[in-house]
Amino acid sequence: MAQIDRVLGLRSGTAERWIDGYVRSRRRYPPVVRLEPTGADIVTWGEFSETRLLAGYRRAGVPMYRLRPVVERLRAAFGHQHPLAHATWLTPHGRELVEEIQREVGLDDRLALVIYRNGQLVLSLPAQEFEQAVDFDGTDIVRRFRPDPTLPEVFVDPLRQYGDPVVRSVPTAVIAEQNRAGDSIDFIAEGYLLTSEQVRQAIEYERRGRITQKAA
Q1: Model pLDDT, residue 215
Q2: Longest Cα separation, the chain
Q3: Which residues, including other chains, have CB under 8 Å from residue 210's CB and lie 6 or more apart?
Q4: Which of 8, 54, 106, 128 is most exposed, with minimal Cβ within 10 Å?
Q5: What is the DSSP letter of 11?
Q6: Residue 13 — left, alpha, or beta (φ > 0 → left; ψ -120 to 50 → alpha)?
Q7: Closest CA to 167 of 175, 179, 159
Q8: Cα 118 from chain centroid?
Q9: What is the model's pTM?
Q10: Interatomic CA distance for residues 199 and 193, integer angstroms
């Protein structure tokens, strides 16, 4: 859970609340990502991917658990435990189904996955950013994603470095640490067979992460 907070720039404990639910003032709030709370700190790739989408709504000002009824209905409709980690809901037919479900459950507009714009059914801004940030495999499941869309060379892949952010296969944290130790961007790029731009983006990603952690 802590790794997800760090990778996605979330306040400490946010991923746990979204994935496993939480209790406040003796009231239990159900998880959005998991079927039921498990208390497990280790997450699946499907859970990580769905949390990547939810991160786009972090400033919506609406409790994220209110999105749960939509996710439950999509699980039943698409037959996937983690429907938002599949490409199905992003297709024209999928968007129509999402819009129908949103309307039926009375989802707050600030949490909408799809919206009407100029008479056309389109993805909301957070959903559009998610679509641009992820790469799907041949079965339409998220294969990897970019935690920061403005740094496209940095991505998270469950098969590389245990899901820590990388450029190609080199952890961004390792690159940033070498740079802080005095190594130049060009020197690091040559050592790892990366481009200077890849190294620059890795350093910038880690810099933004440190700023977020200090703010939290």
Answers
A1: 52
A2: 57
A3: none
A4: 106
A5: P
A6: left
A7: 175
A8: 28
A9: 0.90
A10: 10
